[in-house]
Amino acid sequence: MKNNIILVVLVSLPVMISYADNQMSVLGAKAKGKADVSVAASDFWACNNNQAALGFYTSYAIGVYYENRFLTRFTSMGAIGVVCPIKKAGVLSTCVRMSGMGGFNQLQAGVAYSRAFGQYVGVGLQFDYLLNYFGESYYGRSHGFTFEVGIYGRVTPNLSLAFHVYNPARLRMLCSGDIKEYIPTLFRLGMEWHAGKNCELSVEMSKSLDTRLNGAVSVEYIFSPHLSLRAGMRLPDFVFSIGLGATIKDLTIDVSSSYHTVLGYSPQISLVYHFKQRKHEK
What we know:
Blueprint: H1 2-23, H2 29-32, H3 46-49, E1 61-67, E2 77-85, E3 91-101, E4 104-117, E5 121-134, E6 141-156, E7 159-166, E8 186-194, E9 199-208, E10 214-224, E11 227-235, E12 239-248, E13 251-260, E14 264-274
Antiparallel strand pairs: 1-2, 1-14, 2-3, 3-4, 4-5, 5-6, 6-7, 7-8, 8-9, 9-10, 10-11, 11-12, 12-13, 13-14
């Protein structure tokens, strides 16, 4: 049984690695319900998706996230994040995510600082520690350090633009033996437009140094401050998604599911609790 599981993982590994390299593990069921469109979103999970958008955050919050990626526990992912505003000195945040189990596990832990300059521009910087563990003795484990930077701008009250780059220095993992493993360098550019009181449209492009350009679009309809519906599509990966968000007092609950035409379904859920009355998130 164990050998069969290893064989399935090895056969699908090239596709999964390509998928992960393009998306760099975007977190939050809200973003997942929008086909990973998140670089210009100033919600809680900006602590992972684009720290610059967190510069305008005004409440202490903690969030958890789980994704049953491709409906198999061996590629599932869990994460926890904490956001701590420091009065007028900026925002500190941390996020830890883990994926895999058994013979293959990945972990990333990051600490970020975000700062808003006036009402229009935010910047963010995060330092990350990464660990890959392979049960097979030849590969063993690898670990490394990298960083990511972002900028977020409110062009108008209804239009936001953002740019984020992960691992701009093209750093490598520290591996055993002669293995050379580069940490993916990923560039993301996006726009979020509030087309009306109840409708939000978003567009995002992403490109790593080793993969083709990806584009994604999403739409969110806000029924009320407590309920919203989302959908998105990403090409050329052909990923389609849908999601639902609800706010109950200080608790935000998001659920979503995405469909990859090769690998299948991935349901997600995230919970965010705010310890202070939060500023309305755009």
